[in-house]
Amino acid sequence: MALFDAAPPSRPPLAASLQDLSDAEFAELDELLAGIPEPLEPLDAVMLDGFIAGVLVQPELIDPERWLPHVFDAGGHRWGESAPGPEQLRARELIARRYAAMNRSLAEFGGFDPLILEPGEIDEADAAGESGEPAQPVEDTATAPAPDAPPGTSGEPPLDATTRAILPWVAGFEFAASILPGLYALDDDAVATTLTRLYRFLPAEDADEEATAALLAKERPLASLDAAIEEVIACVAELYDLTAPARYQVETVRRAAPKVGRNDPCPCGSGRKFKVCHGAGSA
Question: How many whole angstroms separate alpha carbon 156 and alpha carbon 152?
């Protein structure tokens, strides 16, 4: 799945524990998440991938224990009552590797390879459901309005193939941003504009969002799924760069009082030098 299959010639190959996930490992992770028992509601591998990106672009470094519980359950409830079992440990290992690989790719190359299913793969997964049976061709008519129904009375129109493919990934990103509000708290027009471009793939919730989506479709048309994926990558890379100064800001330590030199008069007012008065102990 990685965009960059080989390290630059000047660098040694990455250790196995630092490499991005293979296709088989993505599938393994998806199975581990799907196996989490009810009533927990885990993310799937595609939503998780978008979720990780949403964590990485925050204007602060987020401790994994703040966001990992929401991967295993949308409500953040604990998976298991005692120490993590082998399945959870393996899931954590794979998630940590994907997080590190995506972070490294964004930092070094300004891009990454999102885990987004092709429309045919989505249809197969939807048709197979939980039974594991081979998928059968299905028509996307569940949300289509009846031929003679008045507008707005019979559900939303069906999503186009590109939006259906991109939506789960962006929904995962949006979920991370909703539980980690640092990104939304930024007063930055560039961040807001980039988020609007990314969220064009989510269903509009009001008339303003519908108008914005229509304007984006006109100004920045996406002719194919590949173009849509490139737009997602560009948006995340821009957000990563925009928030980097805040994320890696080093706070300056400020003294409550001016520093006193060893030969300066002691601040206590004794008239003696600091080094023979209150500074004697530190010496």
Answer: 7
In one letter, which amino acid is 253?
V
Distance of CA 187 to the CA centre of its chain: 20
Rg (CA), the chain: 26
CB 17 within 8 A of CB 97: yes
Taking a C-beta distance cutoff of 8 angstroms, is the pair 105, 66 a contact? no
Quickly count: other Cβ atoms within 10 Å of residue 260's Cβ. Answer: 15
Tally of domains within the chain: 2
Which residues, other chains included, contact 112 with Cβ-Cβ below 8 Å and sequence gap of 6+? 3, 53, 101, 102, 105, 106, 233, 236, 237
Both 100 and 173 in a single domain? yes
Look at residue 139 and tell me if it is in a domain: yes
The answer for residues whose C-beta is within 8 angstroms of residue 173's C-beta and 6 or more apart is 50, 51, 53, 54, 198, 236
Query: Does residue 51 sit in the same domain as residue 114?
Result: yes
Say yes or no: 197 and 103 in one domain.
yes
Q: Is residue 143 a part of any domain in this protein?
A: yes
Task: Name residues whose C-beta falls within 8 Å of residue 280's C-beta, 6 or more positions apart in sequence.
Answer: none
Cβ-proximal residues to 265 (8 Å cutoff; 6+ apart), any chain: 271, 272, 273, 274
Residue span of the structural domain in which 206 resides = 16-148+156-247
Is residue 252 included in any domain, yes or no?
A: no
pLDDT of the chain along its 283 residues, tens only?
444 444 455 556 666 666 899 999 999 999 999 999 999 999 999 999 999 999 999 999 999 999 999 999 999 998 987 788 999 999 999 999 999 999 999 999 999 999 998 876 655 555 555 444 433 433 333 333 344 443 444 455 566 888 899 999 999 999 999 999 899 999 999 999 999 999 999 988 888 888 888 888 788 888 899 999 999 999 999 999 999 999 887 554 455 556 667 777 777 666 777 667 766 655 4
Residue 171, domain member (yes or no): yes
